[in-house]
Amino acid sequence: MNQADALKNEREVIESEIKNNDSFSGMKSKFLKALIQDGVTVNESALATESIGEIYGPLQKQVRDQKTRQESLLKEIQESHSEFMRSRGSTSGPDSLRDSFLTSLSAAHDTYFEILANLQEGTKFYNDLTTLLVNLQNKVSDFCFARKAEREEMVKDLQQNIVSAPTPAPPQAPSYHSGAVSTAPPVAPQQPIPPFAANPYQQYYYPPPPLPVGYNPFAAPAPCESFYCLYEIDF
Q1: Which residue, of 23, 60, 195, 222, is most buried by count of CB atoms within 10 Å of its CB?
Q2: 221/213 Cα distance (integer angstroms)
Q3: Interacting residues of 178 by C-beta distance below 8 A, sequence separation 6+
Q4: Cβ proximity of 69 and 5 under 8 Å
Q5: pLDDT higher for 79 or 53?
Q6: What are the sequence ranges of the domains in the chain?
Q7: How much of the chain, in percent, has pLDDT values that exceed 90?
């Protein structure tokens, strides 16, 4: 496999030389020289093939050598792989212990890289979250500072308004008060007691209503003066 890696590196170098080859810059001068020597009968195909062979001949040789070495190396890799697979077919002895160890090592390798990927992703997430929280904290601090300054300015304006407000005048006594105002509570005027009151503390007296007249069934009926009464009497 190390030989395969070395072969791959040599092939990349050959590919770079083919792409970056600038030997064709002198082709124009060769065509002009041939045109001067031979006139209008210039064999462009032969001249181009000769120039291409001169430029890419060494590279073509390297490519052929690479191909031969690749085929030989591929055959060796296949033989080594077949031998390795035959050795893995044993189910007892040292080979079995080796297979078990290699299986555990492969599982540990996969687990390690999985944990490493999760750790990198978590670290990136918390780094981004920290940046967002710091920005939010700065915004909250600026907002609180602005509100505090606004509160202090409003308190200052309120105090200035209270200080600059005029002092209210004390209340004046009514004009009909000529002397000093008496602090004694007012005395209610006494009402005269009527002579007909049974109780001197009673202010009003209501006489009892007249007794109702009883019904007398033996009394003479009242004269009937209606039209129907007169009609019945005449009949």
Answers
A1: 60
A2: 16
A3: none
A4: no
A5: 79
A6: 1-88, 94-161
A7: 30
